[in-house]
Amino acid sequence: MKKRARPAAALVADGAGEIFELEGYAAVGMAGESWAVLTSDNAIPMPRGGELMFLPDRLPVLYHLEKGIFQTLNEDPRRPGEKIFPVAAFNSPGYVARLACAFEEAPGACELPLFSYAAAGWRNGGFHTAALCVDREKRQDLRFMAREKVVAGIREMRRKMPKNRLRKHLESCALEHGCPAGKNFFLKRFEAPLPLSRTCDARCLGCISLQGPGRIKCGQERISFTPSPEDIAEVALSHIQNVRRAVVSFGQGCEGEPLMDADVIERAIRLIRSQTRRGTIHLNTNASRPQEAARLFDAGLDSMRASMNSVRPACYHAYFRPVDYTFSDVEDTIALALAQKKFVSINYLNCPGFTDTPGEINALASFIRRLPVHMIQWRNLNFDPGRYPALMRRALGSENPVDERPAGMKHALAHIKKQFPKIKYGYFNPPKEKFGA
């Protein structure tokens, strides 16, 4: 810990979930097996809209200020016998975790639910978290999504498109699941979602809409029907006609892989483009099917974002678990999009302790040299941070690769930006008016 760095006080929770400061201890974050004290150098005031949570079946790792050592505690030192638990932050969109909450698993620990778990502490009268801001846009800021306004928007859309099944599905997204993208459609803001696919050609470990029996509970329900091209176009055109610099996007958390339904998307795009050239038509995808993607580019798709946890095939396959494609297909789809002059982003799923290792940083730089994507959307991986780095080490074939000591997320972002100064950083899909900005 630097001499002048000011530590953040440790936060823990009791068995009832009450969060409190633990006097005499500093908060600690982890990146893989490396621990670091949260200080004024690596933590910021917790952004609005974030949430705190305590982690079951885990012991907090803290820093004893007087002794100057890291300690793993299984009980409150002030109240012997009272169990305490680690506390993590689930930060607002636009913020990337620099360090995960530091903990050790208790025997028989369950796998953590599908959230990201940034380190958190208390300093200067407020909560602090180990995070970096990559996008300041207020697109998913809940302060601007008043429920009464969402409900008013829903009523209006019911009158305009009473029989539209996709519109009805988005109502559920907005009101039952609290989806910010769904809310934005009814609020006539920014980006509108166009989910449609019930199936997928990957079995992602962290899929939030489909998990196998006995695994982690899904965060949201997958769409149960395939909307018609006409319904999709009606929703998209309504948004484009009412929103300045509108974006409409296929590929959402409540669906599988949209390229599985490329024929429906192609027809929907052609219907939209037959009526307007305005608006940005975007695809969030695993980029598994180059031929299907090519049809969408020809139809008028403007931009594409390819999701990946790693650019190293072994690590990608270990997390995405493709059914009938490989990482080379992903690369081919990206190459095709670039050749077609489409705006291409990668949805880069980050976890401190893996993403910020020299091996992964260098692999990402090599990837961008070969495939000069326009943007990296730095997003937190919603997965257990205590288990994920070990999964990736096993995928690489070594329990302790020499190049895998983390260099830090701040270093990772700075290193890539230095090598590729024109690449954009962000979190949200930009409208085409900002492609060249």
Description:
The chain has 437 residues and is of the alpha+beta class. The protein is built from eleven helices and 22 strands. A hairpin with a 4-residue loop joins β7 and β8 (69-72). α6 (290-299) packs parallel to α8 (327-339) and α9 (358-370) packs parallel to α11. 48% of the residues are buried. Residues 186-422 form the Radical SAM core domain. It comes from uncultured Desulfobacteraceae bacterium.
Descriptive terms for the model:
4Fe-4S; 437 residues; 23% strand; globular; seven-stranded parallel beta sheet; TIM Barrel; rSAM_sf; 11 helices; single chain; 28% helix; ten-stranded antiparallel beta sheet; alpha+beta; 2 domains
Quick summary of this structure?
This protein is an alpha+beta fold and 437 residues long.
Give the topology:
Layout: E1 9-13, E2 19-26, E3 28-31, E4 34-37, E5 44-45, E6 51-54, E7 58-64, E8 69-72, E9 85-90, E10 95-97, E11 100-101, E12 103-105, E13 118-123, E14 126-129, E15 131-133, H1 147-160, H2 165-175, H3 180-187, E16 191-193, H4 229-242, E17 247-250, H5 262-273, E18 280-285, H6 290-299, E19 303-308, H7 313-320, H8 327-339, E20 343-350, H9 358-370, E21 375-380, H10 388-396, H11 409-419, E22 424-426
